[in-house]
Amino acid sequence: MSPMRSSGSWKTRLVIAAIIAFFAIASYYMSTDKNPVTGEAQRVAMTTDQEIALGLQAAPEMIAQHGGELPDRNAQALVDQIGGQLLQALNRDLAQQGRENPFPFEFHLLADPKTVNAFALPGGQVFVTAALFRDLETEGQLAGVLGHEMGHVLSRHGAQQMAKQNLTQGLVGAAGVAGGDANSARMAQLVGQFVNMKYGREDELESDQWGVRLMGMAGYDPNAMIGVMEVLERAGGEGPPEFLSTHPKPANRVIYIKQVIKEEYPNGVPAGLKP
C-alpha cells in the first residue's frame, strides 16, 4: 500500500471516529432529566416510568438466580414492615417539600443462603438475601440495608449508569475505529471500565447517606449502619483491593457514615431511636 493511500485511510478512520465520539457525547449531555425526588438535574438513559417497567421485568429473573423467595412468612413480613416504615417516612418528608416519590417500592427476601448481599433494580425492586438477613442483629440494621438500597433507586443510579455506559461504549467504538485494530478497542474498554468503577463507588457512598437519613426519619438509630458494615466486613474477609472494587471497603464506609451522622445530627443523635 502506498504511503498516500495509507495516510488517506488513517484520515478517514479519524473522521469517522470523531463523528462517533461527537454523537456519543452529544447524546449523553442531551439525556438530562429532573429527579422528582431530589430536584437534581441528572443525565439518565430512561424515564422514571421506564425504570419502573425495567425493574418489574427483571425482578423474576433476579429472584430465580437467588433460589427464589424465602418461604418464611414471618421474615418476609418483617422486611415488608420495615421497608414500609422507611417508605412512609420518605413520602411524608417529600410531601412537606412539595415533591412526590414516583417509585412503587417492593421488598423481597431471597432464599440464597450463601451470598451475603442486598441490591436494588431501577424503579424500586429491593432485594435482601437470606444469608445477609440472618447475620443482621437488629431491626435498625435491616432498616439501614433497605434504606441504602432505596437510596440507589431514589438517586436513579441505575439510569445514570446506563447513560454513562452508553457514552463509554460510543467513545470505545470511536477509539477502536481511530486505532484501526482490536487492541486499541480493548485498551479503550479497560479505561472506560475504570471510569465507571469510580462512579459506582460514589453511588455507594451517596446511598449510605440516604440510608442514614431514611433511618432517622423512620425512627431508627442511624448508628445501626455501622453494625451493618461490620457484618459485611466479616462476610467479605480480605476481599479484592478497594481500587478494583465498585464498593468502598466497609471500614472506609464506616468513616463516611460517621461523618454523615454528625452532619445530619450536629447536636447528637436523638435519644429513643430504635437500634
Automatic annotation (TrEMBL):
Q: Which GO terms fall under biological process for this protein?
A: proteolysis involved in protein catabolic process
Instruction: List all membrane-crossing ranges.
Output: 12-30
Q: What cofactor does its activity depend on?
A: Zn(2+)
Q: What is its EC number?
A: 3.4.24.-
Manner of cofactor binding, per the entry note: Binds 1 zinc ion per subunit.
Which UniProt key words apply to this protein? Hydrolase, Membrane, Metal-binding, Metalloprotease, Protease, Transmembrane, Transmembrane helix, Zinc
Record-annotated Peptidase M48 domain positions: 88-258
Q: Does the keyword Metal-binding apply?
A: yes
Q: Name one GO cellular component term.
A: membrane
What GO molecular functions are on record for this protein? metal ion binding; metalloendopeptidase activity
* Key word Cytoplasm present: no
Checking InterPro entries in the record gives: Mito/Outer_Membr_Metalloprot, Peptidase_M48
Similarity field:
Belongs to the peptidase M48 family.
Protein name stated in the entry: M48 family metalloprotease
**What is the species of this protein?**
Blastopirellula sediminis
